[in-house]
Every structure is written in structure tokens, then in C-alpha cells.
Design goal:
Layout: E1 9-14, E2 18-25, E3 37-42, H1 50-53, E4 61-64, E5 73-74, H2 83-96, E6 101-107, H3 108-119, E7 124-130, H4 141-158, H5 160-172, H6 179-183, H7 212-215, H8 221-226, E8 230-236, H9 243-255, E9 260-262, H10 280-291
Parallel strand pairs: 3-4, 3-6, 6-7, 7-8, 8-9
Antiparallel strand pairs: 1-2, 2-4, 2-5
Length: 294
């Protein structure tokens, strides 16, 4: 595996609603004619891919900060995050780096990527959509949305620690959501090492509800089946039967494909960024295998 620790070059592209910051590792145009490999997530900024990118020293790697996160600046005056807006931002980046890429898209970034290939079908040759949190595709969608609202309520009522503890409970739950789950008291943030005090901030994009349009997004299944992009729906083996494993499984079934299994968990590509360690080397090897399976 070809590795590189060369730091990325920071660049920007301006759209009608944002000044989008993106980062390029390697030359443009790429050496050898290979497409750039773009890595996107939501609400994580580009730095979350720093470790994974080092395992692709033989390719030009492009990452970006989503609208309102990291160095990307919103100019539209809004706070809501939608797949359509984010897809437009990513399309602008892809246009500036050559017009076509391969893509790893994780979490909310995977949701945006599904909209991207629907709106701009020539932008992406191969898409690996890793654990998209599409609550609406679940058989227990109503309960899943109620569980999501409970996380946001805990955050708005009692602050970041309470909200994050509730989020951990949500994402760790096995199987369909039950009445017992919805009626259980909110978990104590102290049991997860989270602060119990409230600093008054309510702008966390993961907990505040500004990204509800991401989790409520309904993919156009017929359009996705028709696009020229090869779409792989991926999930980490350690995520099995959790919320984002089940959403991946339901999406894959709707598309008539199987789930493409990856090592580790929802953040399996991370090497300790944000205190979240997965298996980035094994993840990179699996990603390379999928991308090269033409």
C-alpha cells in the first residue's frame, strides 16, 4: 500500500451560497490518468479523513469542509443543512478538480452523495456510500424519527453532555426501536464521561436538528438504479444491527444489491481523529479493493 504524509494544499471555490474550502493531496491533474479520490462526510470536517488519506499516496485525494463546518463559510444566511445544497457545493469542488472523481462518502456525506449522483450523474465514477443514516427507509421509521427527536430534545433541554449521551444510546441500540426504548429515561451523560453541566451552547450540528433534512432524505431509487455511477452501499462489521447498519441494509435492498462490508465501525476509517479510532489501514485496503473491482 502506497502511503504519504504530505500535507494537503488548501483551496476554495465560491458558489452562490457558500465559500467552500477543500483540500488536495497530490497533483492536479492526477499522475497516470487516475481520477481523484474524494472523501466526504457530514457533519465532520475534512480533518477526519487525515489518517485514511495517508494510505492513498498513489492517488490525488480531495477532501472538503461541509457547508457551515470547518473553514467553509455560508453566505446564504441559513442554518439548515440539506443534501441538495451540499451536493451543489461538492459538484463545484469536483468541477474545479477535473470534473469526475471516485468517492468515499460516509454518514451524512453518504446521503449527500446519493443526491449528488442523482443530480450530477457524470460527477462520480464509483461511489462507496458508507452507513448513510436514512431513517425513512427503515420499517420502524416513525420510531426512529421519534428517537432522533428525543436526542435533540435532550440537547435543547440540558445541553451538550445530555444530548451526546442520548445520541450514543441511539446509535448503539440493536435492532428496531421499541416502545420500551422510547419510554426509557435519558441516559446519564456521566456514565459516558460526558459533562453534566450546561454551557448554554446549542449550535452543535450533530445534535441541534439543523441536519434533519439529511436523516429525512428520501433517495430516488429509480434514478439511482439508472445512473452510470457504480454505487456500493457499505457498512462496518462492528455496526451490525445498529441504526446505520440497518439503514444501509434497507437502502441496499431497495437498490437490489447487497451490503458491502468494511472493517470496523461507523468511523472505521479514522485513526484517532476527534478521539475516535477505527482500523484505517484495513479500511483503506478494503476501499482500494472495492474501487478497483471494475
Amino acid at each position: 500500500m502506497v502511503t504519504s504524509d504530505i500535507p494537503p494544499i488548501t483551496q476554495t471555490v465560491e458558489t452562490s451560497q457558500a465559500v467552500v474550502t477543500y483540500y488536495v493531496r497530490g497533483p492536479l491533474p492526477p499522475v497516470g490518468g487516475e481520477l481523484p479520490l474524494m472523501m466526504v462526510a457530514q457533519p465532520m470536517e475534512a480533518a477526519g479523513f487525515d489518517t485514511l488519506a495517508t494510505f492513498f499516496g498513489d492517488r490525488t485525494v480531495v477532501t472538503y469542509d461541509p457547508r457551515g463546518v470547518g473553514r467553509t463559510i455560508r453566505t446564504d444566511g441559513g442554518v439548515e443543512v440539506t443534501p441538495e445544497d451540499q451536493a451543489g457545493d461538492i459538484h463545484a469542488v469536483i468541477t474545479t478538480v477535473g470534473g469526475r472523481v471516485d468517492m468515499l462518502a460516509s454518514s451524512g456525506g453518504a446521503v449527500t452523495a446519493l443526491e449528488l449522483v442523482t443530480l450530477y450523474p457524470d460527477d462520480v465514477r464509483t461511489l462507496v456510500a458508507h452507513e448513510p443514516p436514512l431513517l425513512g427507509v427503515l420499517p420502524d421509521a416513525d420510531r426512529a424519527f421519534a428517537a432522533e427527536r428525543a436526542v435533540q430534545q435532550a440537547y435543547h433541554d440540558r445541553g451538550w453532555g445530555a444530548g451526546m449521551a442520548a445520541f450514543i444510546g441511539l446509535t448503539a441500540w440493536q435492532g428496531e426501536f421499541t416502545d420500551e426504548y422510547l419510554q426509557a429515561p435519558a441516559p446519564d451523560p456521566a456514565q459516558f464521561g460526558m459533562p453534566t453541566d450546561d454551557n448554554g451552547s446549542r449550535d452543535d450540528p450533530l445534535l441541534s436538528g439543523t441536519a434533519n433534512a439529511i436523516t429525512a432524505y428520501q433517495p430516488d431509487i429509480a434514478a439511482l438504479r439508472a445512473v452510470p455511477t457504480r454505487v456500493f452501499v457499505a457498512a462496518g462489521v462492528e455496526s451490525r444491527n445498529t441504526l446505520t447498519w440497518r439503514t444501509s441494509q434497507a437502502l441496499a435492498a431497495a437498490l437490489g444489491v447487497g451490503v458491502t462490508e468494511f472493517p470496523s465501525h461507523h468511523g472505521g476509517f479514522m485513526g484517532g481523529e476527534h478521539g475516535y479510532a477505527g482500523q484505517p489501514e484495513a479500511f483503506a485496503a478494503r476501499l482500494r479493493e472495492v474501487l478497483e473491482s471494475r
